[in-house]
Amino acid sequence: MKKIIFGLTLTALILLGTIFILSKNKVPVNEDLYYTIPRILTYHYEENKKMCFEIFGNNENTLIEFVEENSYYLVDEKSSYQLNHVEVTKEKDYSSKEATFYKYTISCGLLNISDENIIFEDCSLKIKNESFTLECFIGYLAIYKGEYQELDFQDLYGNYAYIQNELYMVGITIQLAQAYKELMNVSIGPAYVDLMQIEQDQLYDSERLEGSLKHSVISEKKPQDGYKLKAKQNYYFLPISYPNLALFTKGCILLELDGKIYYIEDFTYLANDISISNYNHSKREGKVIYA
Question: Can you give the pTM of this predicted structure?
Answer without folding.
Answer: 0.87
